[in-house]
User: Which sequence fits this backbone?
């Protein structure tokens, strides 16, 4: 048995205990975890310094170093994020439905944790407290695999969290574990017997690699090819404002707009002005033949542009003949992440929200709203473009599933067969609130 | 592009249309489908005759032939099952939550179909109308792959269903498609771009093969190693009755009991009588050393017995020292399908339902109740031992996911950043009922 098998097995044993801890006990442990990071801020910062030094010696890219570096303020934000998880509603033990099957026999559908979560992420040491606290609150055991560049920071933070939670009697020993090497990360992907969900965070290529190399369900998104569509019924001032925000507010985000579709009837009215504003903001524009005709300084797009996530100050623009063409284009070229219509015709907007099959569909608001915090989920474990389990921004609810609890009084199934078979009542009962 | 890629692509295009068909339109098409099978009963029966002839010539096992054979009554049952799907609540378009993010900007979480379902099943031609109608009602396109032994029946039924639904204007052309060869079935498992969920029905080995050979999520269960545990607080008359039903009511079912655990304090009181009743019903009994001591004509179990799904008139029995030992044993050896406690001590029963991590956990009722129809789900697409998406008996709700629909009025995310940042209200609104 590899080291990771042992870790996964231990996580699974701890998950069985975590599943039925009380909310109060979980919140006490989370508070201890927050306090521990607060009290040992200096230890965290000095561990982080080692990572930064290592990164500088290795000439690691500036952007990565920015995400890697911690400050007093960032540690305070970590502490605050754990305390905000304390404040979240416990997603475990919610009764989703109660059905009377017959006299004295009732089945309840009750939420419960998934079991063991494998979380794999790059740089950013703040992922450690965030993912740990969300998994813990939802009663899941977690195995963390961070990037090598953040190893000292991650190790210190995880150590503090684990020591703190273990001080609360009843918390199982292996609720949070960390693995370190790339080889261990790969081994983790093989533990489908004990690990029930993989949550990867990182680049498209990174997430895609994980999706292609495990039988464990993966909650994540590899690409965010998000569209805006300016309908002929759009309010053009609103449209321009929202499109600029969708592209510019944070171009590297997965919910930033990559392709803009414009209805042919208003292209001449809106595109020259909008393109000028994008140009002013240093956005490189490529477009279809029609677009280049309407805005001469847009370069022609190649066929591959329509499927690209630039994650950068670049935008592709296409003029479409009709609303239906826009919907069809998005369903074909989008990645099912987030797509938006700008329209004042309410019926058309509603059709867009129905017919575009993406996880988040929006009318007259920036694609950048597609985010767990902004949606009011309280915290986000990730954004999913899966079609099963959890979709779009995923909060605590995505870390639970349900079980059926049946309470009988000696009933047998054979009584419901043959002559004089009993009949089920199947009466929905109101769950206690 | 293989034939199956084309089929999957067509299914996906049709799924985009199916996703927003009205309930009324779907119900009209389902009614046409039911009528078509009713009207063409003879054609179905004569196609079935060809399959039976082929099976006899090939010396196919009697049990398989039993499941393969159709009768007037079985066709009536098919028709009835489609009509019962008409009566089910439409699972699409249910508003799960509505949140005001700020003035004039609201996000709704609304149920929607998954997309394209690949259904793979063995013999039983009645799977064709059942799976087709459930997928259609939930707005999913489906690709059916039946067993070769039922090919004439399946083809005739599918043809009738497809012709009938296409008579209703608005129903897309490729809502239900069928593939036939084993090679096509294998090709289907590779279409993760267009197929979003595989639903396999068949033997453990069959389901396991599928789980191991696709990147598409699989909704199913390979094994049902279900336990009963007779606690020392059990009412022994009830316990005996329920245990007999759990094993005998349909021994080949996945929810039949395979292992019985008995608390040591009542083993001598209950086991001799219970074992005699099992023996009388031709059940082969194997047991732990203690069990063999208490009931001398029980044979010793081997270590592997505790992990076996017999699917037959065989039961393994183990005497345990404590409630906790029983829970631990079940979490270790069970397959997470269905497990049951017999106990009058309510607190202990509740602990069992909390601590055993299976999809269905039961107190004082036969494991055989774990079934979509008996749970009141209306219909069952399958039973899942997955830890994500859908668990236990899965009805129409397991064939939908949700999307976020955001309605704004020109809002941008940048207004919520920096000095004078706007604050989110995150006010839960009541969904319209």
Assistant:
């Amino acid at each position: 048995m590899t080291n990771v098998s042992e870790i996964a097995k231990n996580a699974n044993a701890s998950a069985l205990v975590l599943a039925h801890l009380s909310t109060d006990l979980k919140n006490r442990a989370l508070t201890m975890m927050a306090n521990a990071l607060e009290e040992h801020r200096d230890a965290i910062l000095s561990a982080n310094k080692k990572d930064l030094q290592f990164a500088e010696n290795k000439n690691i890219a500036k952007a990565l170093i920015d995400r890697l570096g911690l400050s007093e303020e960032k540690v305070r934000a970590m502490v605050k994020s754990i305390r905000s998880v304390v404040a979240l509603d416990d997603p475990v033990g919610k009764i989703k439905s109660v059905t009377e099957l017959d006299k004295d026999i009732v089945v309840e559908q009750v939420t419960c944790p998934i079991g063991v979560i494998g979380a794999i992420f790059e740089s950013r040491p703040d992922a450690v407290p965030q993912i740990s606290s969300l998994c813990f609150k939802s009663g899941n055991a977690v195995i963390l695999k961070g990037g090598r560049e953040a190893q000292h920071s991650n190790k210190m933070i995880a150590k503090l969290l684990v020591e703190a939670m273990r001080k609360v009697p009843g918390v199982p020993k292996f609720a949070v574990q960390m693995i370190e090497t790339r080889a261990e990360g790969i081994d983790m992907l093989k533990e489908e017997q004990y690990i029930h969900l993989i949550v990867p965070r990182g680049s498209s290529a990174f997430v895609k690699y994980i999706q292609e190399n495990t039988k464990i369900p993966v909650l994540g998104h590899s690409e965010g090819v998000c569209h805006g569509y300016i309908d002929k019924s759009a309010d053009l001032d609103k449209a321009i404002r929202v499109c600029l925000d969708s592209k510019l507010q944070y171009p590297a985000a997965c919910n930033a707009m990559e392709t803009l579709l414009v209805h042919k009837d208003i292209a001449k009215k809106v595109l020259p002005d909008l393109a000028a504003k994008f140009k002013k903001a240093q956005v490189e524009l490529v477009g279809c033949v029609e677009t280049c005709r309407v805005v001469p300084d847009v370069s022609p797009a190649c066929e591959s542009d329509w499927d690209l996530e630039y994650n950068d100050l670049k935008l592709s623009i296409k003029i479409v003949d009709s609303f239906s063409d826009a919907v069809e284009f998005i369903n074909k070229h989008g990645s099912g992440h987030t797509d938006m219509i700008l329209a004042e015709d309410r019926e058309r907007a509603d059709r867009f929200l129905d017919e575009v099959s993406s996880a988040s569909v929006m009318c007259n608001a920036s694609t950048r709203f597609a985010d767990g915090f902004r949606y009011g989920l309280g915290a986000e474990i990730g954004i999913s473009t899966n079609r099963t389990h959890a979709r779009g921004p995923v909060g605590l609810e995505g870390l639970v599933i349900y079980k059926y609890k049946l309470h009988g009084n000696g009933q047998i199934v054979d009584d419901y067969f043959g002559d004089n078979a009993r009949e089920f009542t199947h009466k929905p009962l109101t769950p206690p609130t």
Summary: The longest helix of chain B spans residues 23-39. Chain B touches chain A through 75 residues (CB under 8 Å). The domain at 3-90+115-212 of chain B is CATH 3.40.605.10 (Aldehyde Dehydrogenase; Chain A, domain 1). Residues 107 and 146 of chain B are 41 Å apart (CA to CA).
